[in-house]
Specification:
The chain is an alpha+beta fold. The chain contains seven helices and twelve strands. Strands 5-8-12-11-6 form a five-stranded mixed sheet. The protein starts with a strand and ends with a strand.
Length: 224
């Protein structure tokens, strides 16, 4: 099936806020050394900072601000039908885990929108094969819809509920054939802070690299 392709959403770099004039003046008075604000120039850097720091609220706030001002992100949201017209996706959103899995999958495929090759999203969860032990070169096929997010901090929060704690950095392959549904970040939407991107079933996931960091194992993967 020929699916329409969405624009690439890339809102990097993102950074923590610089110290205010009052903070600078106070630091000069007390002799305190102010911490240099964190900057993530790429999604992978965002994941690395999340794995090192654990709390990345400042970066999340900047990401959300940049998304609100991103024309590509607005175009992606505009391409999605309203939730009232996709009842299975709406039930998934507001009544999870009580939803019709096959109905959700059907609606994502009926909408028929592909992420742009090179798009990067995140996932927090255990590698589902080999008892959670992930190694470069391993592949598996998704048998149900797959939840991802545009925010490494959100993925980290989900990873915290699992053991081992694994933070996936997922890059969309040029051969992508699996459609997605992108949930709105509008503040009147339920769980809008999740910045969720939901893939249909059938995608092939391949680990391209992995490494252990302080708080998470980072898993780099491609998705087709």
């Amino acid at each position: 099936m020929n699916y329409q392709q969405l624009p690439l959403v890339n809102v990097y770099p993102i950074s923590e806020s610089a110290p205010s004039a009052m903070q600078i003046a106070l630091a000069e008075h007390t002799g305190e050394v102010l911490r240099t604000p964190e900057v993530a120039n790429t999604p992978l850097e965002f994941a690395e900072i999340t794995a090192r720091k654990f709390f990345v609220n400042g970066l999340q706030m900047c990401l959300e601000y940049n998304l609100r001002n991103s024309s590509a992100y607005k175009d992606c949201k505009s391409a999605m039908p309203p939730l009232y017209s996709v009842p299975n996706l709406k039930k998934y959103r507001v009544e999870y885990p009580h939803y019709d899995l096959s109905g959700v999958d059907f609606e994502i495929r009926r909408i028929g929108l592909l992420p742009k090759p090179g798009q990067v999203v995140f996932h927090g969860g255990v590698w589902p094969v080999n008892s959670g032990v992930c190694r470069a070169g391993q592949k598996f096929t998704l048998t149900k819809p797959f939840s991802t997010t545009l925010c490494a901090g959100v993925a980290g929060a989900h990873a915290n509920t699992h053991n081992p704690r694994q933070l996936w950095v997922i890059t969309v392959s040029p051969m992508i054939s699996t459609p997605i549904f992108l949930f709105s970040n509008n503040r009147n939407q339920f769980l809008s802070h999740e910045l969720e991107v939901l893939f249909a079933s059938g995608a092939v996931i391949e680990c391209t690299a992995e490494r252990q960091r302080k708080h998470y194992q980072i898993i780099e993967v491609s998705i087709v």
